[in-house]
């Protein structure tokens, strides 16, 4: 049996603000079983960084896991050669060179059109009206599902990540997830005979990957590739508007948009955790971990570990964010990281602040979630 100490949490409070509970765990029980989640949580950065790479003990292969059951077994739920093979197949669609040469011009054109539409309005919700369509239009191109609307892409992504975090077993959340995956399958069927060049769908079809694997990987790209950039764009903009002294550093050339993005995802990792299955019985820091038990690698907690970050709850563009691991640190490091960084730091943020003079917050802008975290809304105004 698992011998890690037990920590009780209030799920609603944890979703609203997980950081006080995570800080307490880091201090007194960095390896702890949380009954409300049915999992052992690793909350210190060094433990997360080390154990993410130990796939013989903590496996990504989770036949009964929510992602596998709801979305199919994608490359993030494979280890070893199987994982590397599918990652290699996807690489031509997501490599830094492909992003710079093929996707970036498309990202820029879509973002410019969105901002041209927004400028005369004088106000909007940055989540709904800017970050969501910027991310969704980029994802339509990358996946090859150009028949999907931006709203369909966003809704499908949200339904899937809600399903993957549905550890309380809410049947309504599960039903929405199934509807989303069925919608994606229908769009794949429309595009599969002639998928757009360089797309995730195209490279998998060209490599002869089985359709079950291809479908699961497209769903993976949508689930992480929509919500994470959406939440990071809106969240980083919110943090900069909330901290004008930090925004001034960028305008003075003392920091850049990549610094802002790196500090935001350290502070509020959009993907807050990654689940693993204990492939065998073993020990973490002297505590027995039972075979087949569930272990959560808490990236959101790692980014605020006091052992690596001074004043970890403070938004500070001058700090070294190197020890943070918001994209993971092992063999499952986010395959779409180059696309996300390009979209956010080279296009969305600089174009947003350049296009909308006098941009300012205009109301309450709460964040929500623990497995996936981002702003619910970011109401803003500017000078039309």
From TrEMBL:
Keyword Oxidoreductase: yes
One function term, GO molecular function aspect: oxidoreductase activity, acting on paired donors, with incorporation or reduction of molecular oxygen
Pfam family, one: p450
Keyword Oxidoreductase included in the entry's annotation: yes
Alphabetic keyword roster: Heme, Iron, Metal-binding, Monooxygenase, Oxidoreductase
Gene3D superfamilies documented for this protein: Cytochrome P450
SUPFAM superfamilies per the UniProt record, alphabetical: Cytochrome P450 (SSF48264)
InterPro entries linked to this entry: Cyt_P450, Cyt_P450_B, Cyt_P450_CS, Cyt_P450_sf
PANTHER family found in the cross-reference section: CYTOCHROME P450 YJIB-RELATED, P450, PUTATIVE (EUROFUNG)-RELATED
Family listed: Belongs to the cytochrome P450 family.
Protein name: Cytochrome P450
Source species taxonomy: Bacteria, Pseudomonadati, Pseudomonadota, Alphaproteobacteria, Rhodobacterales
